[in-house]
Amino acid sequence: MKKKSTSISMIGFVSITIAMVMDVYEYPIFATSGLQLVFFLIVGGLLWFIPTALCSAEMATIDGWEEGGIFTWVKNTLGERFGFAAVFFQWFQVTIGFITMLYFILSAISYVFHFPQLNSNPWLKFIGIVIIYWILTFSQFGGTKNTEKFGKIGFFVGILIPAIILFCLFILYILKGNPLQFHLSKASFFPDFTKPNTLVVFISFILSYMGIEASASYVNELENPKKEYPIAMLIVVLAAILLNTIGGLSVAAVIPASKISLSGGILQALESLFATISPNLNILVNSVALMIAIGVIGEVSGWIVGPARGLYAAAQQGLLPPIFRKVNKHDVPVYLVLVQGVVVTFWAALLTFGGGGNNLSFLIAIALTVVVYLMAYLLFYIGYFVLIFKHQDLPRGYHVFGGTIGKTIIASLGLFTSIASLIISFVPPASVTAGETSIYLIILIVSALLSLALPFIIYHFNDKSIHKTIKAPKHMSSDETNKFIDLAFRGEHHIDPDKDDYL
């Protein structure tokens, strides 16, 4: 086994993992389900979160597989072609997901500065997205050191502090005896799965855990992975369920489900919660909204170079044209970042002008992000099955419990859930009207097929002879190759950005 050059405490590992899978602005999505959100979070964790985390850890601790993430794992089990496809899907879904993040930033800015046209006028919205994204893109050419610092500021200012404020206000709201806007009963805890939309909502909770596999590359830095990793994952699952439950219920407690704005629900909840203390405190809502916007901007900044580095690992092995193996003096793959910017601009135009309206374009962006990411997860799980049945002799620092039978059961849960999620992702959410259904499905299906074909087309036409002229690739640290995987846009199938004045 490769000797560790660094080590990380279990608490540090837990902190990194939680930061990858949680975001404050997902709380309104959870809140629409009322008390059922607790059920969804628990079952989603058991069916998807834990299997993905465990299987990722085993693959990440195989000797020689520690670097490169999903590209290395899938390449070594299914072949180079599929390894490239997996990392391409991981990168491509981020280019789509950026749009949902930028939509959220514009919503918050329009709220703070009382400028609703910024979120409702397609041209203003597109221009706003392009300006914000390209400013952030050019700011990353100076290297990742400043980006990481700004990312930390964004996390604490835009995520942690707003969450603490919300939790404290929620507790005060309860202590003052205010009425709850959701029912506390056994019947309200268990969802009705006979309703098609319930499945869509359920999958959105499962997919809210997307990105958990990214932290697996840190497993090798634990002092005792076999002992500490399962404990760490248990802590992460419990913490994610607890914090998401408190956050979701904080919103559900003060805003009726039918009136929750899924991209502005945090602001709605804050207004109501501050009002219970004093009407004069509503001015603080603008401050918190601006903090959340800063947090999302920080996240976008951190992910601009990260996804390109994932493809850079493949480019180093000759799977992309030579120009994409070039970096600037700060080790930034500039040409990959620029191509990424062009792709993001394309998605911004397509989804803002061609999505059939503000709400529909947002929903399509969310669904397409999920579909593309799930393609990578399908390859990931298939690769894991190849590993446990054909490469049992490979040395590794961590094994999923239960031997081959236990590994098969765990991986089957994750694979089945991923397949079901992919199928259900094409079911139009309830917020899509009957007249919009055909537009929604056509754009989503065509975009999904194009996304599926692209990596295989690129790989097919790539000059394979270039492999012979390439030197051994420069290995990037796990922090460089994996830190971008977070989907702040994870599984938000049913966001309605047209609802009320919070957008």
UniProtKB/TrEMBL annotation:
The chain crosses the membrane at residues 7-25, 37-61, 82-111, 123-141, 153-175, 199-219, 231-255, 283-305, 334-354, 360-387, 408-427, 439-461. GO terms for cellular component: plasma membrane. Keywords: Amino-acid transport, Antiport, Cell membrane, Membrane, Transmembrane, Transmembrane helix, Transport. GO terms for biological process: amino acid transport. The keyword Membrane applies. Pfam families: AA_permease_2. It catalyses: 4-aminobutanoate(in) + L-glutamate(out) = 4-aminobutanoate(out) + L-glutamate(in). InterPro entries: AA/rel_permease1, APC_superfamily, Glu_antiport. Coiled coil: none annotated. The keyword Transcription regulation does not apply. One of its GO terms (molecular function) is antiporter activity. Its main location: membrane. PANTHER family: AMINO ACID TRANSPORTER-RELATED, GLUTAMATE_GAMMA-AMINOBUTYRATE ANTIPORTER-RELATED. Belongs to the amino acid-polyamine-organocation (APC) superfamily. Glutamate:GABA antiporter (GGA) (TC 2.A.3.7) family. This is Glutamate/gamma-aminobutyrate antiporter. It comes from Enterococcus rivorum.
